[in-house]
Write a structure and sequence with these properties.
single chain; 1689 residues; alpha+beta; five-stranded antiparallel beta sheet; 60 helices; 36 strands; ubiquitin protein ligase binding; ARM_CUL7_CUL9; CPH_domain
Length: 1689
């Protein structure tokens, strides 16, 4: 059938390509809050299933989810389902043409005919009992079937007499009557599913229906049920091997299922509109609903119990104690490993350790420990594995068997695998014998023993950290339970215990009720009172002690597995495991009875030593019961009265019977035992009570015996006799044999024994005829299991919606089995469909016969041999092993290659290649494949010793362990995702209408998340299931909410952004805990901490959030949330919102306060408050701190250029003042350091911004004055180390480096002076020696030659003497020689304006200083001529007025600048000097000289400045001592104060002009390269080349730029990234390093200062794409008035 997809625009993503669409209203009810709720069917469709070409036709059998929704949820998610009156539109009730064709009179006549026909049929049926049915009866039934097919007459057939008629017909021994009954039921059920279900329910509730139904009648009803449930729960369990359930048990499951669904419908109908109910009071309605809830819970518990037994889960896990799940948040990702190679942490109650033997951690090395284990270990000792090794995992325990000299040397029988495996000595920890082992070590105390030296990390409980418990989990922890309530069972626990009380028979039931009455003051207990009892824990413990002796085997297994027994049972209270074996639990009363017999001197029964006795001797009293049964059967003519009690006992305790049947799977050598067992089974089949035994649970053993090639022919014949007899008595077991593949096994047995097996052919035909029934049974098992899963999911949804506890018994048991899955392994024959070989196919069966003595031998050329496996659909290979033998010599494979493909023609993918060693016996070819390969081919490429043919001894294929967890996880996640995404949309709608409702979001989310956490702690068995639920819930609820509350609306403001703004505004007022602001702030903090609970993970970047409309009736396309719904997207959206809030806050502050004198301290305080707010709201998370920095950067980027330059200058000035102020010391100095540190934290925001360039400019200027004025200190380096990234050109760092270089040169100069002094002294000594020992000669020619040499030497010596005279001017100075230090400053890193004034030492400095400077000049010149330094151009020194000096003036030490030093030294020789003469002598500017004179003429200075009429500027003279107001001593600082720049002056404007010119030049170059673009490195080189070589900028602009005409790569990169932020330049998606021109963009600044110095008013708007300046054919930069900029990196 095909239906219409009416609401295709409303879709909810459930997974990749999977969407849910609302379809129609099913029913409605009144919710727990009194508001109406509507059950909506949502269709689950994959992408492409919605219809081709936009078609809205879908298959009506598509998967669906039934979801109860409130009116608001429907309004928010699918508002079109609401009518004009606001009510949900129900399914249209169309009147069929047939109904319209029948008038009332005709319909009444037909109803009368039907009633008379029913009476006639009942009478005729009673008359023909035991005879062949007469034709009139068959005709009457045929006419009734015809009437039943008319839909308007359906109501007549609901008469109870119709059910009686159908019951009599279905239980009739005549086949034709039963077939006619089936025809009538099919006719009645053909109208709708409701009628079909009602008929099935009515029939199934008839008393003793199973006794009256034969196989065919029961199959007819089961087929109807399968048809009824096929479309209700279309769930697939493909790949999971379901157990074989006989029809009798299936029919019981169907009855239970129909009963549960009926009660569930009654519960939903009882909650319908009050007007639809009878005239009953609210109390009566409430009592009726409570009764239905109790009845539904008991029925659901019974269904789960029988289903668990039918699936054999109780036997598979009866000996396994369920591990307690770790109590941690399910919304936080768990630590998968405690360290490299460690297994996932599991919550275990205790870990056993040895009392005698030492652990590995006590040894210094692994070799020492291995020797200790080797010497100590004895056979039979228990050991524990410490490391993961191949098939054995760390923590596995086993029993040591033996050791040898092989590798690995130790053989251990491991409990985890059930077989032996060889490991190494150092991998084992000795536990010893059982008496040496103690269970005293808690799991969290034993983390280091698994891997030596690696300690596991266990997540602590939040109760351990009370200071952070509020934010440790995303939900508020519930308050502690009341002490009185904690002493009683919860309602769920009591109802689970009540379930077992209701299971008891009459006398036992009365005894338990008597115990209850005695403990409850003799109160009369009826069903209503029982349901509401408050049972104390002591009473529950008494009941749990009394129940085990009164329950049968199946109910006892349920009791031992239930939660109330594990919690309050005697074993749990005593501290022992609450999971004793069933035989031990059942044997207690019988052992006590046996003990009583011993005391009564009754001799114990004696049994002969037979194979049967040896088989059952360990079964205890049940085994002895079975031996008594065998003795009774062996007696002559056994009486039914003697056998029946034993059979009833076996029905209660069937374990000996199952052991007996499973013994058929033992080796063929046990022939006597097999024959005895088959004889007993053959006799049991004849008793009706024996057919109620669980034969189907041990049919696998019969099939193993039937398939085994070693089974003796006599045993095989007896087995066929037995199976034929069993299938004849109950055809259900013929169906079971069909499901187990008995037909093929019987055919192979007939082929092997040449057809000489009696009844084998008949048995095979009987099994073959049940093929259709086997398919029906499999479908029924799937439908019942799927229906139960859907009901469980429905209960979970009701639990979420109503927040009421789940009181269904065994609910956690059912979920535990669904999450853990089946215990059945996929064996070799279940993994592959067939095996093909390259040659000798008749011997291919030898590969899989599990006999290592047989083999498959190939025939052909070398390298052409292969084995091809055709795998079953969906099977992932866990291990593929090849069995070989070294004795095969040259036939043994040497190299094997494995290929995989989708078909035999596409085997192109090499999966593995293995080189086989000659000593190997098992060759592992594949392990743990993650992809399904339909075809696997094993190719033998080479044989040992160059052999041609090969021999393979066997092939083992181990597939995965199929579980129900993937199926249940998919269903659980789908329902959870749909529920919470619908709820998230409804909450988002409320927030969109009223932002104040965002304050309630925290409590809403807290309730939902705590609900899921409690559910996971109560019902889910392991962390994997809990984490899957938590992850789905978080993605479905929190992710969409965060997406919606962080998306801006039409005004550009998001709801969360508005809330955070309000939080920042009322932050100061929130300090009063009694104020409304404090309560408001608390709600905001709880909300934000909840939203950032999950740490981010990798996810693709989502698109930018688009503004959303305020309209409620908008289309909801949630497809984008399929990728955004991740924890990382939550954090990303929250950080983006926080960044926008911070950016707006910073921008408002800068706009209002950027001109204030105290701007920097106030901005630092504002930034500090934002930091504290970020920590308060989101905790110390790096993502939000980064968002804070980006928000501050965004606020700075919105400033125009000159305002941004002013801000950067203010910060540079503030840092300079704090550094200089810190020199004061004391408390004031410490306060300055604190202010400096806070400012530096704020300045770090400049890193990567365009403002960093201007900040570096001003900081460099102030730093230069500071270093030259007061000198360097440790604080300079510390500041640069902290804010170094804020200097893109690293000029301040280079300045400090140049000072270090100068200090090194000064040390070298000191050594150089000492060398010169030593040289001069050596010359003087030589001269004295020549004078003392010299003599004269008088030869004339000789004199003439000497005269010429002296003259030449004179000429040469004239220059040398002048230089030496300049160098040695201070050598003859009689006073104290001053200490002179020279600073060599490079103009590349020091401000040029500071060193533009040169100093002439000859005219301005005294002689005792000039000599030192001259010697330093010569030293520096010589140092530049070293070969190591000749790589670049030689540098020369140019003396400047920069520097500082210390002068002694009386008792004072004057700290002055170089200019002041020169001026004061100049006054040493003069009494007075005019300012005008000083200007002429020094060549300084008047401003620079006046800056130096002002401190000297202050009250602290030594000079006076007197104004004279004829002397411009005044006259300076030394102040007389008599004029001193007071005596002065000590240090006096007269260095001129720092002169601070203004960003609004000419230099700031020049910086802006340079940036605008570079922007235009970049655009012009990129436009010339078109869409192809240019690499960023090439662009920088071209811009610098054009700036330096071309006549660009124009001469007028160059002169106006001044220093701004210089340009480097950092300036160009800053402009490039500024244009990228503007959108004028774009990156290529595939090559981000390639840049190209984007679009023409007009840049207009409303407050742009004039670019021309002499003009006034703003500049006209300029565009990058219209202004062109051409010269020499080279494009260069144009001007632009832009003042805004963007970040760069």
């Amino acid at each position: 059938m095909v239906g219409e997809l009416r609401y295709r625009e409303f879709r909810v993503p459930l997974g990749p390509g999977l969407h849910a669409y609302p379809d129609e209203l099913i029913r409605q009810r009144v919710g727990h809050d009194g508001h109406p709720e509507y059950q909506i069917r949502w269709l689950i469709l994959r992408r492409g299933d919605e219809g081709e070409g936009g078609s809205s036709q879908v298959d009506c059998k598509a998967e669906h989810i039934l979801l109860w929704m409130s009116n608001d949820e429907i309004y928010a998610n699918c508002h079109k389902m609401l009518g004009e009156d606001g009510q949900v539109i129900g399914p249209s009730q169309e009147i069929t043409g047939e109904a319209g064709a029948l008038d009332k009179s005709v319909l009444g006549e037909m109803e009368t005919d039907v009633k008379s026909l029913i009476q006639r049929a009942l009478r005729q049926l009673e008359e023909c009992v035991g005879t062949i049915p007469p034709a009139p009866l068959l005709h009457t039934v045929h006419v009734l079937s015809a009437y039943a097919s008319i839909e308007p007459l359906t109501g007549v057939f609901k008469d109870p007499r119709v059910l009686d008629l159908l019951m009599h017909m279905l239980s009739s021994p005549d086949y034709q009557i039963r077939w006619s009954a089936g025809r009538m039921i099919q006719a009645l059920a053909s109208h709708d599913a409701g009628t079909r279900t009602q008929i099935l329910l009515s029939l199934s509730q008839q008393e003793a229906i199973e006794k009256h139904l034969d196989f065919d009648s029961r199959c007819a009803l089961l087929a109807l049920f399968a048809q009824a449930t096929l479309s209700e729960h279309p769930m697939s369990f493909e790949g999971i091997q379901l157990p074989q359930v006989p029809g009798r048990l299936l029919f019981s499951l169907v009855k239970r299922y129909l009963h549960v669904t009926s009660l569930l419908d009654q519960l939903n109908d009882s909650a319908a509109e009050p007007g639809a109910q009878n005239n009953s009071g609210p109390e009566e309605l409430s009592g009726e609903r409570d009764r239905l809830e109790l009845e539904f819970s008991m029925a659901m518990g019974t269904l789960i119990s029988e289903l668990v037994q039918a699936m054999r889960w109780d036997w598979a896990l009866s000996r396994q104690r369920p591990l307690a799940r770790s109590s941690c948040s399910i919304f936080q990702p768990q630590l998968a490993e405690a360290g490299p190679g460690l297994p996932p942490t599991r919550a275990q109650p205790s870990i056993r350790r040895s009392r005698r033997f030492r652990p590995r951690s006590e040894f210094a090395s692994g070799n020492t420990y291995a020797l200790y284990v080797r010497e100590t270990l004895q056979a039979g000792m228990r050991v524990r594995m410490l490391d993961d090794y191949e098939e054995v995992s760390a923590g596995d325990e086993g029993e040591f068997r033996q050791s040898n000299n092989g590798m690995p040397p130790v053989q251990v029988l491991w409990e985890s695998t059930g077989r032996t495996y060889w490991v190494h000595w150092h991998m084992l920890e000795i536990l010893g014998f059982e008496e040496d082992i103690e269970d005293v070590v808690e799991a969290n105390e034993y983390q280091g023993a698994v891997v030596s030296g690696a300690l596991g990390v266990a997540l602590p409980s939040w109760r351990w950290k009370p200071m952070t418990e509020l934010y440790a989990v995303p939900y508020v922890l519930p308050e502690d339970e009341d002490a009185e309530e904690s002493e009683h069972l919860t309602q769920a626990e009591w109802w689970e215990l009540l379930f077992f009380i209701k299971k008891l028979d009459g006398p036992d039931h009365q005894e338990v009720l008597q115990i209850l009455q005695e403990n409850l003051d003799g109160e009369i207990l009826d069903d209503e009172i029982l349901a509401e009892l408050a049972v104390p824990m002591e009473l529950a413990q008494d009941l749990l002690l009394a129940l085990p002796q009164r329950l049968d085997d199946s109910a006892l297994r349920d009791l031992l597995n239930c939660r109330v027994y594990r919690k309050y049972g005697p074993e749990a209270l005593a501290g022992h495991p609450a999971y004793p074996t069933l035989l031990e639990a059942q044997a207690q009363p019988q052992e006590s009875a046996g003990a009583a017999r011993v005391e009564g001197k009754e001799p114990p029964a004696q049994y002969p030593d037979t194979p049967l006795w040896r088989l059952l001797v360990d079964c205890g009293p049940p085994g002895r019961t079975f031996l008594d049964l065998e003795r009774a059967l062996s007696s002559e003519g056994p009486q039914e009265t003697e056998i029946k009690p034993f059979l009833l006992q076996l029905q209660r305790q069937p374990q000996p019977f199952l052991i007996l049947m499973q013994s058929l799977a033992t080796p063929a050598a046990n022939k006597p035992l097999h024959l005895t067992v088959l004889r007993i089974l053959m006799q049991l089949v004849d008793f009706p009570e024996a057919l109620l035994l669980p034969w189907h649970e041990a049919m696998d053993a019969c099939m193993a015996c039937l398939r085994s090639p070693d089974t003796d022919r006599e045993v095989l014949q007896e087995l066929i006799f037995f199976l034929h007899r069993l299938a004849s008595v109950s055809r259900d077991y013929a169906v079971v044999l069909n499901q187990l593949g008995a037909r093929d096994a019987i055919s192979k047995a007939l082929e092997k024994h040449l057809g000489k097996l009696e009844l084998a052919q008949e048995l095979r035909d009987m099994v073959f005829k049940c093929e259709k029934h086997a398919h029906l049974y499999r479908k029924l098992t799937t439908n019942i299991l799927g229906g139960c899963i859907q009901m469980v999911l429905g209960q979970i949804e009701d639990h979420r919606r109503t927040h009421r506890p789940i009181n269904i018994p065994f609910f956690d048991v059912f979920l535990r089995y669904l999450c853990q899955g089946s215990s059945m392994e996929v064996k070799e024959d279940k993994c592959w469909e067939k095996v093909e070989v390259s040659s000798n196919p008749h011997r291919a069966s030898k590969l899989t016969d599990r006999n290592p003595k047989t083999y498959w031998e190939s025939s052909g050329s070398a390298g052409s041999h292969y084995i091809t496996l055709h795998m079953h659909q969906g099977i992932l290979i866990r291990q593929l092993t090849l069995l070989v033998a070294g004795e095969d010599s040259s036939y043994m494979p040497a190299r094997v290659v494995v290929f995989g493909g989708d078909s035999t023609n596409s085997l192109n993918t090499e999966l593995n290649s293995v080189n086989v060693m000659p000593s190997a016996s098992r060759v592992i070819l594949l392990e743990n494949l993650t992809r399904f390969w339909p075809i696997i081919q094993i190719r033998i490429k080479r044989c040992q010793q160059g052999g041609i043919d090969t021999r393979i001894r066997g092939l083992e294929v181990l597939g995965p362990k199929p579980t129900f967890w993937p199926v249940f996880r998919e269903q659980l996640c789908r329902h959870t995702r749909l529920f919470y995404m619908v709820r998230a949309q409804a909450w988002s709608q409320d927030i969109a209408e009223d932002r104040r409702s965002l304050l309630h979001l925290s409590s809403r989310l807290n309730g939902a998340l705590r609900q899921e956490q409690n559910f996971a702690d109560r019902f889910l068995p392991d962390d994997e299931a809990a984490q899957a639920l938590g992850k789905t819930c978080w993605e479905a609820l929190v992710s969409p909410l965060v997406q919606n509350i962080t998306s801006p609306d039409e005004d550009g403001i998001s709801p969360l952004g508005w809330l955070l703004d309000q939080y920042l505004e009322c932050r100061e007022a929130a300090h009063n805990p009694q104020s409304r602001a404090a309560a408001f702030s608390s709600r905001v903090r709880r909300l934000t901490h909840l939203l950032v609970h999950v740490e981010p993970c990798e996810a693709p970047l989502p698109a930018a959030a688009a503004p959303r409309t305020k309209s409620r009736n908008r289309s909801h396309d949630w497809s984008s949330l399929a990728t955004r719904g991740l924890p990382s997207s939550i954090v990303r959206n929250l950080t983006r919102c926080w960044q926008a809030v911070v950016e707006e806050q910073v921008n408002n502050f800068l706009t209002s306060h950027w001109r204030d004198d105290d701007f920097v301290p106030r901005y630092c305080e504002h930034f500090h408050n934002l930091q504290k707010s970020s920590s308060e709201l989101f905790g110390p998370r790096a993502a939000f701190l980064l968002a804070l920095q980006n928000g501050c950067a965004g606020g700075l980027l919105k400033l125009p250029f000159l305002k941004a330059a002013h801000v950067s200058e203010q910060f540079a000035r503030h840092i300079d003042q704090r550094i200089q102020g810190s020199r004061i010391g004391g408390a004031r100095g410490m306060e300055m350091l604190a202010q400096l540190q806070r400012c530096l934290e704020t300045v770090l925001i400049f890193s990567g911004l365009e403002i960093a360039t201007t900040f570096e400019h001003y900081y460099q200027h102030y730093m230069a004055d500071r270093l030259l004025g007061v000198g360097s200190s440790w604080l300079e380096g510390a500041v640069l180390e902290q804010i170094g990234p804020c200097f893109p050109n690293r000029l301040p760092q280079q300045m400090l480096q140049s000072l270090s270089t100068s200090e090194e040169l000064q040390r070298q100069f000191h050594v150089y002076q000492l060398q010169r002094l030593d040289q001069e002294l050596l010359k003087l000594e030589d001269t004295e020696k020549k004078i003392q020992g010299g003599h004269e000669t008088s030869d004339k020619e000789h004199k003439g030659e000497k005269a010429e040499e002296a003259e030449g030497a004179v000429v040469t010596n004239v220059v040398e003497e002048e230089e030496e005279e300049e160098e040695n001017e201070d050598l003859y100075y009689e006073g104290a020689m001053p200490e002179v230090s020279v600073l060599v400053l490079s103009p590349r890193c020091w401000p040029i304006a500071s060193i533009c004034h040169t100093l002439n030492p000859r005219t301005c400095l005294p002689s005792y200083l000039r000599g030192t400077l001259n010697r330093y000049s010569n030293f520096y010149s010589k140092s530049q001529s070293y070969p190591a330094l000749e790589q670049g151009p030689k540098r020369r020194l140019q003396w400047t007025w920069l520097g500082r000096a210390e002068l002694q003036f009386g008792d004072q030490t004057l700290h002055v600048s170089t200019v002041q030093m020169w001026l004061l030294l100049y006054l040493n020789d003069l009494q007075a000097v005019s300012v005008e003469s000083l200007l002429a002598l020094s060549g300084l500017s008047p401003d620079m000289l006046n800056q130096a004179i002002t401190p000297l003429t202050s009250l602290r200075g030594p000079l006076d400045l007197r104004e004279e009429n004829d002397v411009p500027g005044g006259v300076l003279k030394i102040r007389d001592a008599s004029e001193e107001p007071r005596p002065r001593r000590g240090n006096v600082w007269l260095i001129p104060p720092q002169v601070y720049l203004k960003a609004e002056d000419e230099e700031g404007r020049n910086l802006e002009k340079r940036r605008n010119l570079l922007n235009c030049l970049i655009v012009r170059i990129l436009k010339a390269h078109g869409d192809k673009g240019l690499h960023i490195d090439q662009l920088v080189c071209r811009v610098l080349d054009a700036w330096q070589k071309g006549p660009c900028p124009p001469r007028g602009l160059v002169s106006s730029l001044g220093r701004g005409s210089a340009c480097n790569s950092t300036d160009v990169l800053s402009c490039i990234l500024h244009l990228l932020g503007k959108g004028t330049v774009r990156r290529h998606d595939d090559q981000p390093q390639m840049l190209s021109y984007a679009v023409p963009m007009t840049v207009m600044e409303p407050h742009t200062e004039s670019l021309n110095p002499g003009s006034s008013g703003p500049n006209p708007p300029l565009t990058f794409h219209t202004l062109q300046i051409r010269s020499r054919g080279v494009p260069y930069a144009s001007c632009t008035g832009t003042q805004s900029f963007s970040t760069f990196r």
